[in-house]
Amino acid sequence: MQVLEHSGNGITVDKGEVVSILGAPGSGKTRLGLELAFLRRPEVGLVLFQGENPLARKRSMQPLKRPREVTMLVQNAEDQLFARTVFDDVAFGPRQLFLPDAEMERRVTGALRAVRLDPAEVRDRSPFALSGGERRRVALAGVLAMEPVVLILDEPTANLDPRTRNEFSDLLRPLRHKSAIVWLTTSAREASQADRIYVLGDGHVSEVHGGDELLRDWRRLIPTGVELPAVFELAGALERRGFELPADVDSADLEDGIVTEWQRRHHDR
Amino acid sequence: MILVDNLGYRYPKQTELALRDVSARVDPDEVVGIVGPNGSGKSTLGRLMKGLLWPSEGRATVDGLDTRTHGLEARRLVGLVFQNPNSQIVNAVVEQEVAFGLENLGLPPEDIRRRVDSALNSVGLIGRELEECYRLSMADKQRVALAAVIAMEPKYLILDEPTAWLEPTVRWPLLEEVLRWRAERRAGLVLVTHRMDEAQTCDRLYGMLDGRVEAQGTPEDVLQDRTIRAKLALDVPETFELAASLRAGGVPVAEGTSIDRLAERISA
Ligand SMILES: Nc1ncnc2c1ncn2[C@@H]1O[C@H](COP(=O)(O)OP(=O)(O)OP(=O)(O)O)[C@@H](O)[C@H]1O
Ligand SMILES: [Mg+2]
After folding, report:
1. Smallest Cα–Cα separation from A207: which of A22, A37, A26?
2. Which of A53, A97, B33, B94 has an alpha carbon 20 to 30 Å from B194's alpha carbon atom?
3. Quick one: how far is CA A256 from the chain centroid?
């Protein structure tokens, strides 16, 4: 079932899926995220939530209302922590939903666990007395605890340590039966962990099915300025220096291609 | 030399030590990396080296100056760029921010101008002197924070995740600019990082875990060791693995450096 649709560029999000939007910084990723979250009017087209445009007024006097079911973790979300304790910070969103205490408790501790923080250890601490990465995790827990229908994450892995970054898609897994996730990222490796991928380049959006297909088309990704696994970055740098390398290959074959081309050039001399 | 000796640190009103028994040194003219999981004490160690925090146990000195008893002199020798540029930038306009520390030192205006220009040049912000800081992207804020510290020409430079917010295409060029700046002055550099390719370029690494130094040595010692990697939540340095695998294929590349250097070598 489709929960979100951006008619301006053909982005659709189905219930429970993880969709990534891959683009270099400055490619308009954040603007797109804000549009999908109804925090900004779309420049082109309409954004529909469950088939309706929540920003359309039914009567002229009616105030505009963005749906609570769509939540966004903004880029420097850790700067917006404000409560006295970690618990209160994570609970802030769900409190707007007037949930019973037991449900609040379940959501907050569940969200803290999901971001690999020990609820007992951190719940009463001040969010200001945390490390950079811990603050980011608390900010993330805050949006997870809302259990929104759609969760939009703008570069959520900045500041996270390598393991947590690599396991980030696992960390999102328990959420999937509740929320659809839109993951904005500059890294092809991260993007390829999603079910479906949209690539943003030159202001337009194209869809790719799965990580393999994404990376096999590495030559198209190079000029977009997104972060690629090292072998593809190297291939790009070598092509700029006149190397001829195979297109439509996986990383192992590309590496072989580099070795072969080096040998050929070396032999010619 | 920055020297911390059996250092312990407890944040105010906390029961647990954030750092325990940490001994480490940074020589002038070397690049020291600090790696480890979130909350392991990297930033805290950086703040103690800069003298922003005082040890609860043990001692921290910069060129023999105790950060507790000779704080002002010690802090002048060390520049620290914070993990989050929002907690560093205090001025409204880019060039004000970069000139701020220099003005506080009472330098003549010509000197200030020269240093500000040179620092802005190093971070690629020439022509953007009059932009408002609060409007900048996180990446550009990070550049401003870096320029402000470089302009002070510190003898030791501590960068706390300086590239966390930088776009992939400028991350290495900017870092290489900083490394060049450092090499010219023979300054000591401390690089706190979650990026293994950056850690790979350091002369030595300290691996932190739960407030202790759990591993130390050359990048190869620390990053090639599977057990250490697992314990410290580290990753395989990609360019290093790639270089090793290309070497195995007969391509004579040096140990893992940046992509551009690899490409230069292969296409030479
Ligand atoms: N201001 C503070 N008050 C109290 N405790 C703090 C404060 N800042 C950090 N801590 C705690 O001290 C420990 C070390 O934090 P530190 O910021 O040094 O970690 P880090 O290695 O830099 O982590 P990260 O990779 O997330 O930046 C953590 O347990 C953290 O929660
Ligand atoms: Mg830190």
Report:
1. A22
2. B94
3. 32
The amino acid sitting at B58 is G
Q: Give ∠ CA A237-A252-A266 in degrees, rounded to 5.
A: 55
- CA-to-CA distance for B178 and B168, rounded, in angstroms? 16
- Indicate if the pLDDT at residue B256 is higher than 60: no
Question: In angstroms, rounded to a whole number, what is the distance separating the alpha carbons of residues B256 and B267?
Answer: 16
> How does DSSP classify residue A174?
G
Structure tokens at B103: 């003005």
CB B262 within 8 A of CB B253: yes
A170 phi-psi bin (left φ>0, alpha ψ -120 to 50, beta other): alpha
Q: Residue B3 corresponds to which tokens in the numbers above?
A: 């020297």
**Domains of chain A, with CATH numbers?**
2-210 (3.40.50.300)
- Taking alpha carbons only, the member of B201, B184, B110, B108 closest to residue B150 is B184
Q: Is the pLDDT of residue A20 over 90?
A: yes
Q: Which two tokens stand for residue A96?
A: 């707007």
B18 vs B242, more confident: B18
Q: Categorize the per-residue pLDDT at B207 as very low, low, confident or very high, splitting at 50, 70 and 90.
A: very high
pTM of structure: 0.90
Q: pLDDT value at position A137?
A: 95
Q: Which atom of ligand 1 is nearest to the CA of B13?
A: 4
- Mean pLDDT across chain B: 91
What is the whole-number distance in angstroms between the Cα of residue A49 and the centre of ligand 2? 38
Residues B55, A103 contacting (CB under 8 angstroms)? no
How many beta-carbon contacts under 8 Å exist across A and B? 119
Which strand (E) or helix (H) includes residue A2? strand A2-6
Atom 24 in ligand 1: residue holding the nearest Cα: B38
Nearest residue to A78 (alpha-carbon basis) of B133, B164, B184: B164
Could you report how far apart the first and last alpha carbons of chain A are, in Å?
A: 61
Environment class of B124 (CB within 10 Å of its CB; exposed 0-12, middle 13-18, buried 19+): middle
Task: Note whether B138 and B88 are within 8 A (CB).
Answer: no
Helix (H) or strand (E) holding A108: helix A101-114
Q: Kindly identify which residue of chain A lies nearest to residue B211, measuring between CA atoms.
A: A131
Distance spanning both ends of chain B, measured CA to CA: 39
Residue-level pLDDT at A152: 96
Q: What are phi and psi of B267, to 5 degrees?
A: -90, -5
Give the per-residue pLDDT at A268: 66
DSSP A173: G
Residue A21 tokens read as 């939007």
